[in-house]
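Each record in this resource describes a single protein on a pair of labelled lines. The shape at a given residue is found from the number at the same position. The record below illustrates this layout:

***
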Amino acid sequence: MSYQTQMQAARQGVVTPQMEQVLGEEKISREDLLARTASGRIAIPANRKHVNLRARGIGQGLSTKVNVNLGVSEDCCNISLELDKVRRAIELKADAIMDLSTFGATREFRRRTIDLSPVMIGTVPVYDAVARYGKDVPAISVDEFFETVKIHAEDGVDFVTIHAGLTQMAVARLRQSPRLTHVVSRGGSVLLHWMTANERENPFYEHFDRLLEICRQYDVTISLGDGLRPGSLHDATDAAQIQELIVLGELTLRAWKADVQVMIEGPGHVPLNEIAANMLLEKKLCHGAPFYVLGPLVTDVAPGYDHITSAIGGAIAGAHGADFLCYVTPAEHLRLPDMDDMKEGIVAARIAAHAADIAKGLPGAIEWDHAMSHARKELDWPRMMELAIDPEKARAYRASSQPQDEQVCTMCGDLCAVKRSRQVLEGR
């Protein structure tokens, strides 16, 4: 039997090499992996041109994954530095990297990133169309938009974010909406500009079958972007957002009919009490497709700390069904992240993802925590450092303040409750 995509293979009962890699990392049966990949509830982004990929699965019954955004821009166009970030993100156990480059030698950076990365790579081709052709947005042709998608697929990109649900009907909802922050998605704003200036429908919606042909040929997963995601708590869960989500659900079924894998992108700023409802809406309206959330940030007033606001929202979103968390750094809303910002964002997102896996009851998730608790009870500091989600920071903190008694720490010293209660209850 032959197949073009992971979804098609699953529907034929074929366990691909990429599925074998997923099975090696996840506690899921072959039967469940095949069934959920065939139905679209699991996506395995794996462009056949990405030869050094270590495939990961995203979706029902799998660990919550973490994505890292990076890339060059007009004001910060240092390819070497961004490639160092790619390497560092892989060291810090990111599951995916999105190249959001908007300026300069974008293809060189994309190819070099794919060549060195064993993790899945995503892009937003609309950004690159603006950079590639150097035109005013309304002057970009439909063919040029699709040629850019084809180039990204040919280069080996595993998933592409396409804002195909931003239709003229959704724009009408937007114009009637009392939104405070309008459109905060870069890709969404580009398409809004193009559609309005040309008085035409979104080319990716109008010619969605053309997009499916490209993605099927290379097995590129479509991440259906939320061009009308809320950019403030004021705008969360409004009519424009939901209108777009309804269309994304319809496009999901069309993609699955063509054996093309899909993920759904979710909101960016959501009050804590609305997160669970947003997860339920996506899963219902988009037929259980994997859900990829951009945070969500649970407050708008913490610039410099948005890795924390995002981790709070991401943990809750993951616990209620989100499958993929896009990291947010302390630099969000302020500047391009540097290396330290990136690390803070990755660690915060990984904490949120792990907390979500525990809440989901994912087999094996809480055992990591039990191992850490055992090491703490034993006052086994080397083991604690080994188990820490960020061993570098844990070791640095420990080394910076040494106690007289090496068994304890300088927080409690001789009043260490763990040591004292162990002596009383266990005689040691």
In short: The chain has two domains: 43-360, 368-426. The radius of gyration is 23 Å. The beta strands are 42-43, 58-59, 65-70, 96-99, 120-123, 159-162, 221-224, 262-265, 291-293, 324-326.
